[in-house]
UniProtKB/TrEMBL annotation:
Protein name, as recorded: GAF sensor sigma-54-dependent transcriptional regulator
Keywords, alphabetical: Activator, ATP-binding, DNA-binding, Nucleotide-binding, Transcription, Transcription regulation
Domain Sigma-54 factor interaction: 192-422
GO BP, one annotated term: regulation of DNA-templated transcription
Keyword ATP-binding among UniProt keywords: yes
UniProt cross-references to InterPro entries, sorted A to Z: AAA+_ATPase, AAA_lid_NorR, GAF, GAF-like_dom_sf, P-loop_NTPase, Sigma_54_int, Sigma_54_int_dom_ATP-bd_1, Sigma_54_int_dom_CS
Amino acid sequence: MAVEKDEFFREVTLRICSSLQINIAFERAFEYLRDHFPIDHMFLDIPDKSLGATRRIAFASVGHRPPVEIVPLPEGVWEWLGGLRAPFILNASDADERIRTFAPLIKLEGCSDLSMPLRIEDELIGFLILRAKGEKRYTSDHMALLSVVVEPFAMALANALAHEAVVRYRDILLDDNRFLRSELAPKLGDEIIGGNTGLRNVMEMVQQVAPLSNTVLLMGETGTGKEVIANAIHFASPRKDGPFIKVNCGAIPEGLIDSELFGHEKGAFTGAVTEKRGRFERATGGTIFLDEIGELPPQAQVRLLRVLQQREIERVGGDRPIPVDIRVIAATHRNLESMVTENRFREDLWFRLNVFPIIVPPLRQRREDVPALARHFVMVKCRELGIAIPPAIVPGALERLMNYGWPGNVRELENLVERELIRHRGGQLRFDSLLSDDKGGEFKHVIEGKAAGHISLDEAMTAHISNVLKLTNGKIHGPGGAAELLGINPNTLRGRMGKLGLKSGRRTG
Ligand SMILES: Nc1ncnc2c1ncn2[C@@H]1O[C@H](COP(=O)(O)OP(=O)(O)O)[C@@H](O)[C@H]1O
Ligand SMILES: [Mg+2]
């Protein structure tokens, strides 16, 4: 059947480029090619070096799908095929030795093949194969006509392979992303200790603010748990399935802050070899946690202010603003207000950040949480250190911990527990390296001072029990209660308190 070559080229190209799904495009091309060639099946095979075989990635057929999809290739055949450049005809009865070895592998018996190598920039990427029932069905005219469409077929195959790879990488990345997020999300053992006691007010504020999208400012000394609270806000918010991106403003070298926070375009500066999304862009749909915001240099403060006002960023070297849908949580251990007075922090930025301030109190102002925190860290650190049976804490030790001033707050307690576990591997935890701070010392002083004069055993006991009751906020019974700290039974303690005329004085609410 005579066909004009230009028209043939056009028609085949339109069909093979009509869908990103190679099987659909391939089917459409097949329907058209049937008018010009004898065909029962049409295959698109790619050489797979790692398999030592060709792999079928698309097919079209008038009848049933032919069974052979992966054809292992002997070394010699592999080289022969790899060197072919023009379309070639395969008949099972061919005199050529190589074709006769190859024919049974591809089940050529009783059929003819017209095969065309597809190359991009001279690299072999696959074969288009037309197959017809019967011997010697293809002629040199068929070969010439098929070679007219070698480029569109090669291009379509290359696109399909690239698309397949992109989809595969996307799936891998999505899977990685899900995995990493689940690793980041708070685990069962990660609960906030003291949420109902020392951090009760803080947690109430967390509950209030979490459902909204407003900026939150966390203030408190180092190690008080600001990051823990920032996490709690994010994971209690509607953005919990979005990213939680942390930036330590004090830890990024000044020259890199812009590109870290806002990203950069490819070629924006020497070394910007690829485009990079900044942390604000990465946080889109989620929360950005700006830790140690007080350390942000003046230049970056200006740019941060603009992000907060306009909710869009500009990449370094970029020429268009990119909208960002983010929630900002900032934290600092500094007094930002006095930094403003000293002109070290921009007042306008401070106003923007200070919409909903939450103060995380230092540990010495919530001593009642110390026993629970200590026990929590014993469990956590034993797991980390591979200690199967967590050692007990000796009774007087918890009292010592509660009396201490904790300048490094919860982090200091965490580190102390770890050191103690390592130092006294297997033994009971005494924490006797710890000196009580002034508060505890004061009480001791009273007792010791009096002891120099005349103090009865009852007086000493009264002073000591009231001291402990102050530490526990009047709690007698249960974990962190006075009985536990004193190492006696709660009923015994109550009895003794009765005799001494002591009330528990427990605060309610
Ligand atoms: N209420 C808490 N419950 C359990 N662990 C806590 C609590 N507060 C702080 N931590 C732990 O103490 C350490 C210091 O907390 P972090 O949030 O980093 O403090 P900050 O950011 O205020 O310096 C972290 O290891 C954290 O997990
Ligand atoms: Mg921190």
